[in-house]
Write a structure and sequence with these properties.
Number of strands: 2
Strand order of the largest sheet: 1-2
Radius of gyration: 52 Å
Structural class: mainly alpha
Shape: elongated
Strand content: under 5%
Distance between the termini: 137 Å
């Protein structure tokens, strides 16, 4: 039944094809002188192509010959017909080959069609080749040619017909056309199809001699294309590499050349053998040229395209396998490239790689070992190159080689002995070739003081110590891959031991390189061991880990010694100290909470780096503290320091007591107090005593005194924080307000209360008059308890007021801050402006804490008053500003206690100082303060009522007053006079608000501040509390008041105010 169905389908297809074939034959065979039926032929060939493509299964060889007959008439006279007609015919021909003739195509027909297609692609020999042909026609011709060669490859007779001696010229022209299409194809599609045709040709031809004849030209042309990869797409390059693989294996495969290799081993060779195409001489010459061509192609191993690299990898593996003996001279070149391109993680079970080939051919193991050793030897030299890509590729290659040696279990004593030294020299060369890192460009310190230290521990990271430039990111990535590869080998323990010795014995860049290398290799080794333990758990596989732990222990000891020596006079490379900090942090991460005993040795040295001038060391110290706190199970860095505060404080006090005047002591203490906060203050009694002693001994050293007062200022600043109140006693926490309150106006309720009190007093007087004795006299008994004398004498009446409860002693925190504040009076006259300003800031911060206990605070105010008020005459403007701010703070804290002092200073020069500051600020603004004319009456917010003379007497008119301001080129509010005047305004505001002043002083202050009351509402409110009418009048005189209308109350009427004359 199936045969009948196939026969019916073929008959049906024949009936559809017959009209088209007959009509095409009729049109092409008629008289050539007639008009060309181009349009009809185009439609017929298109219809024929559509029929063939719609029913390809019905074709067979006889039907294919029937259809080919009318097409042959067009092919014989191609120049007469339009190119689209020829293109349709070529497409029909491809369908006939693939589905009609298939492998039953005859050798003669293969030769005929091959020659026809080559003529279409390359033109007729001797004809004009300048005629351009459509790209579509060329592409379709190459596709048909590929189909023809694939069909011929399936037939022994057809394949033999291609290589007949009579067909060799046409075959040569075909190879040339294919190579030209590859090299000079108009587009990528033509180039790719030409490559396919070339590959199909080499697979179809079975004559070894014919293939050997075309090998030199084919290989040289393909090498020329691969030598200029920038001109071609990646797919073309990959296709060319695949073509090279097919060509070489078809010609130089070991199975093909085994007879030649046998003859080559013979001592004597005849001259006839030397002249043969497939002789020993030919083979020697060929493999030499092939090596040169392959050397050019191997450069593509660095190509960016994965397809091109994959094709090159297949080429190397195939040649190492199938041409192992023939191309033995290329083994080193092929192995080197195969190692670089090996991607073991992507290899499938069925895909052959270099490891498989090395297992088949043991002699390749020596080649692999030699290649990797050569890479290792040349690594330091490559690191001196200025090209980062050269360095990266060299490290990448060596890393791949180490991984291959490990996977093949290849061991080399020579390589093991030189590995550690080579890697250290490599890192040293990188450091010498790199630009030195500038530590001034680092970001400021970010201290993590929150309670969620564990949550944010992952965000703590170190800035890179080595290879920190952005351009070295890829290089560092490859270097870390190399270290992971080395750490996973069996000789990693010996390498680590050698590197630790280098850390102790070398200096300079070599020591830094060895230190960094040792730390990173230890990290990589631990990571590798953790990965292996996750899969396997062998009890006898601990030798490598023991060597790693031993090296890590020794490196940790070196790090602790290095950190302890930070404050010594010897200059140490900051990179060594940074790596030491990283080593300690890594040790803490691995040990966890069991690291706490080690804090006795490392915590203070780590904190010492917080005061370093190197910002990167500061960042490393902060990150290390964060990591150690998290790893040791502390909630925050503050808890870490407070938990070890006894050791920390003792260390600082010991340094001060032993006359250690290095900046590290004071700077560490300052940063330590800032980290720990107010909780640390109760532990600082001994330290403050040591600081006082140091101040007595070193008062002649301004910079050192500054650093000591920086510590004291930090103590005061922390003590002034809100959370420090829990360190104070109850009587030290009470809030004393000195701010003046406005007098409440009498209202109806107060008037009723007054009358009630008067009536009550009147009734009491009448009652006393009736009884002729007072209702309540003076006290008859003393308030206090009588005291007995020792000699049993009569008791005496002490009299006086009843005694209150005895005042408890002040807390240690309060006493500490009070002592520090008292100390400032002796140094406020220091010649160093920075110290004077720091002391004023310290005193201002202390007043907010000390003011609650007036018995202790007011004597302090009395002691510091002379030196603080004298700072208003300081030559430095910013000291004057800070002195005003400190005096304002004293006003807020002491209140009326300063009334007499301000009154005395006001008349002795403080008033003149304020006026001078105002004039200087006005001059700095580029204009002088002008007085507004006195006006009487009211207007709008910008209008005033002004009395004017007229013929009828005194008239009142409304006029607008405005202040004229001239343009200024000064610094404005940032100029020193403007800042001093702003500070004076704040000081006067604080005096008025908190200190009792007399009327004369009030008038002077009002006159000084009236011009700024519009902008300073706090000053206006403070003045209005004392005398609101005076404030209103002053503003009224300057035209700065708003119009006030008569109030309106139900049941009453008020008269509008009139101008006063």
């Amino acid at each position: 039944m199936e045969a009948v169905a196939d026969s019916e389908a073929r008959n049906a297809l024949f009936q559809r094809l017959k009209p088209c074939c007959v009509e095409i034959s009729r049109l092409t065979i008629r008289d050539e002188d007639g008009p060309l039926p181009a349009r009809e032929l185009l439609a017929l060939t298109a219809k024929l192509l559509d029929i063939l493509q719609s029913s390809p299964s019905g074709l067979h060889d006889k039907l294919a010959e029937y259809v080919f007959f009318p097409l042959s008439h067009i092919f014989r006279q191609m120049t007469r017909y339009p190119m689209p007609v020829v293109e349709n015919c070529v497409a029909c021909l491809r369908t006939l080959i693939v589905y009609g003739w298939r492998t039953r195509i005859s050798p003669a027909l293969v030769q005929q069609i091959f020659t026809l297609l080559i003529f279409i692609i390359d033109g007729v020999p001797g004809a004009d080749k300048n005629q351009e042909k459509p790209e579509e026609l060329i592409l379709e011709s190459f596709r048909t040619l590929t189909a023809l060669l694939d069909a011929a490859a399936g037939s022994t007779q057809a394949a033999a017909g291609l290589a007949e001696p009579a067909a060799i010229p046409q075959l040569g022209q075909g190879v040339t056309a294919m190579l030209d299409g590859i090299a000079d194809g108009v587009n990528t599609s033509i180039q790719e199809e030409a490559i396919k045709s070339l590959v199909a040709l080499n697979r179809a031809i079975r004559d070894h001699g014919a293939l050997a004849t075309f090998l030199p030209g084919t290989l040289s042309n393909l090498a020329r294309v691969l030598h200029t990869p920038a001109r071609y797409k990646a797919s073309v390059l990959a296709g060319c590499l695949d073509a090279v693989r097919v060509v070489l294996t078809r010609v130089l495969g070991d199975l093909r050349t085994r007879t030649i290799l046998v003859k080559k081993d013979k001592v004597e060779e005849t001259e006839e053998d030397n002249n043969k195409v497939l002789g020993s001489a030919w083979l020697n010459a060929t493999v030499g040229q092939v090596k040169k061509a392959l050397a050019t192609m191997m450069k593509l191993r660095a190509h960016e395209s994965a397809d091109a690299r994959g094709a090159l990898d297949r080429l190397c593996i195939t040649l190492l396998d199938e041409c192992h003996e023939t191309l033995s001279n290329c083994s080193a070149l092929l192995v080197e490239t195969a190692i670089i391109l090996d991607s073991s993680e992507h290899n499938s079970v069925t895909e052959t790689n270099l490891s498989h080939i090395a297992g088949i051919y043991p002699e390749l193991l020596e080649v692999i070992k030699t290649t990797v050793y050569n890479w290792m030897s040349s690594l330091p030299r490559h690191m001196q190159s200025a090209d980062e890509d050269v360095k990266r590729i060299a490290i990448h290659n060596f890393s791949k080689g180490i991984e291959l040696l490990r996977s093949l279990n290849i061991e080399s004593s020579t390589m093991e002995s030189a590995l550690s030294n080579t890697i250290c020299e490599t890192i040293t060369s990188l450091l010498q070739a790199s630009k030195p890192t500038s530590y001034d460009s680092a970001a400021p310190i970010q201290l993590l003081e929150t309670k969620s230290m564990v949550k944010y521990a992952g965000k703590t990271s170190y800035p890179p110590v080595l290879l920190s430039h952005e351009s070295q990111r890829g290089l560092k990535k490859e270097l870390m891959s190399l270290l992971r590869a080395v750490s996973s080998t069996s000789q990693s323990g010996a390498v680590l031991s050698d590197v630790v010795d280098f850390v102790r014995d070398t200096t300079g860049n070599s020591q830094v390189a060895a230190y960094w290398l040792c730390l990173e290799m230890i990290k990589a080794s631990h990571a590798s061991s953790a990965d292996e333990d996750a899969l396997l758990n062998f009890g006898d596989a601990s030798n490598g880990s023991d060597d790693t732990e031993s090296a890590f222990s020794e490196l940790y000891s070196i790090s602790v010694e290095l950190l302890d020596a930070h404050s010594d006079a010897a200059v140490v490379d900051w990179r060594m100290e940074a790596l030491a900090l990283e080593t300690v942090a890594y040790a803490a991460q691995r040990s966890g909470e069991s690291f706490r005993p080690e804090l006795i040795d490392v915590l203070f040295p780590i904190a010492t780096f917080l005061g370093s001038e190197n910002h990167q060391l500061q960042q490393h110290a902060v990150a290390t503290l964060n990591i150690v706190a998290s790893a040791s199970n502390y909630d925050s860095v503050s808890d870490l320091i407070v938990g070890n505060v006894d050791y920390m404080v003792s260390s600082v006090a010991l340094r001060l007591n032993t006359l250690d005047i290095s900046p590290a002591s004071t700077q560490v203490l300052t940063m330590m107090i800032r980290l720990a906060g107010p909780r640390l203050i109760p532990f600082l009694d001994d330290v403050v005593e040591s600081i006082f002693a140091a101040l007595d001994n070193y008062h002649g050293y301004p910079l050192f005194v500054e650093s000591l007062f920086d510590v004291l200022k930090e103590i005061v600043d922390q003590g002034a924080k809100t959370e420090s109140s829990r360190l104070l006693k109850d009587h030290e926490k009470k809030e004393i307000l000195h701010k003046k309150q406005a007098i409440q106006q009498d209202d109806l309720n107060s008037l009723i209360a007054f009358f009630d009190k008067r009536n009550e007093r009147k009734k009491r007087d009448e009652a006393e008059a009736q009884k002729m004795q007072p209702l309540k006299g003076h006290p008859q008994e003393p308030w206090g308890e009588p005291e007995k004398k020792n000699n049993n004498e009569e008791m005496e009446d002490p009299g006086g007021e009843p005694p209150g409860e005895e005042k408890p002693p002040n807390s240690s925190t309060y006493q500490l801050l009070n002592r520090v504040a008292n100390l400032t009076q002796y140094y406020l006259t220091s010649p160093t402006p920075k110290l004077r300003r720091s002391l004023l800031e310290l005193l201002k911060s202390a007043t907010s804490v000390l003011a609650s206990d007036e018995d202790s605070f007011l004597p302090l105010v009395n002691a510091v008053w002379p030196v603080v008020i004298s700072r208003l005459k300081d030559p430095e403007p910013y000291i004057v500003v800070e002195a005003c701010s400190t005096l304002a703070g004293l006003c807020d804290a002491a209140g009326d206690f300063l009334a007499s002092r301000f009154k005395t200073e006001w008349h002795e020069g403080l008033r003149d100082f304020c006026r001078k500051a105002k004039r200087a600020a006005a001059a700095a603004r580029g204009s002088t303060a002008t007085e507004s004319r006195r006006a009487v009456g009211y207007g709008s917010s910008n209008d005033v009522m002004v009395p004017l003379r007229s013929e009828s007497g005194l008239d009142v008119r409304t006029t607008t007053l405005s202040r004229r301001e001239e343009p200024s080129a000064s610094l404005g509010q940032h100029a020193s006079p403007a800042r001093i005047w702003a500070a004076v305004v704040s000081l006067l505001t604080s005096i008025v608000a908190n200190v009792r002043i007399d009327d004369e002083m009030f008038d002077d202050i009002l006159d000084l501040l009236v011009d700024v009351l519009e902008k300073r509402s706090d000053a206006k409110e403070a003045l209005e509390v004392i005398n609101a009418d005076a404030v209103w009048l002053a503003l009224y005189e300057r035209g700065m008041t708003a119009r006030q209308t008569a109030p309106k109350v139900e049941g009453a009427s008020f008269v509008e105010l009139q101008a006063y004359t």
